[in-house]
Amino acid sequence: MKQEKLESILESARKRFGKYGIQKTSLDEIARMARVAKATIYNYFGSKDQVYLEVLNLEVNDIIENISTVVEKATSPVDKLKAFLHAKFHYMKDAMNILNLDREGIDALLPKTGNIRDRLFAKEVNILRAIFEKGMDEGIFCIANVILTAQAIAYALRGFETTWLLRENDSEIEIYLENLSDVLCKGVLVRELAV
C-alpha cells in the first residue's frame, strides 16, 4: 500500500507540474489527484520542492533507461548513434518537467534542479562516449577526443530540445534528426584518402 501511494503521488505530481509548472501547482491539487491526504505528501517528501525534485529524478532515470535500452538493441556504432538521437528526443518529449526547467527558470528558484539536469547530461555523455569508443575500436569512427566530442554533441542536442520539442511536430523532428545523423556520421566516418 505504501508503494502504491508513493507512485500515485509522484504520477499525479508529474502531471500537474508538467501542465502547470511548479509555481502554479499546489500540494492540495496533487493530494486531491492522488487521492491522499496532504499530510501524507508531507510525510513522504516534506515539501512541494522535494516532490518536484523527486519527479525530476524519476524522469531522468526513465529517460536514461529508455535511451540505453534502445541503443543496446542497435548493432553497429552508426546505428547506435542514430538510435541515441531518436530515442533522446522521443523520451525527452514525454519528460515534460525536465523540459520546463529551461522555460520556467526553475534553477534560480530551486538550485538543486541544476544538479539533476547535470546528471542527465553526464549520463548522455557516457552513452555517446561508449558508442564512439566502440566505433573507434571497429575502425568506423575517427575521433581525436572522444569525451570532448560526446560533450559537444550532448550540448548541441540540449539546445535543440527546447527549439524542436516545443515548436515542431513529430514528423519535422524526425526530418531534423535524420539530417543531423547524416551530418554527424559523414563528419566522423573514416574515409579512404585519394592517392
Explain what this protein looks like in three dimensions.
- With 195 residues, this protein is an all-alpha fold.
- It is 82% helix and 0% strand.
- The chain is built from ten helices and no strands.
- α1 packs across α2, α1 packs across α4 and α5 runs antiparallel to α10.
- The longest helix is centred in the first third of the chain and has 26 residues.
- It is elongated and about 65 Å long.
- The model has no long low-confidence stretch (mean pLDDT 86).
Radius of gyration: 19 Å
Beta fraction: under 5%
Termini separation: 71 Å
Biggest beta sheet summary: none
In sequence order, what are the helices and strands, one letter per element? HHHHHHHHHH
Level of helix content? over 70%
Mean pLDDT value = 86
Low-confidence stretches: none
- Label the structural class: mainly alpha
Q: What coarse outline follows from CA principal-axis ratios?
A: elongated
Number of strand segments: 0
User: What's the number of helices?
Assistant: 10
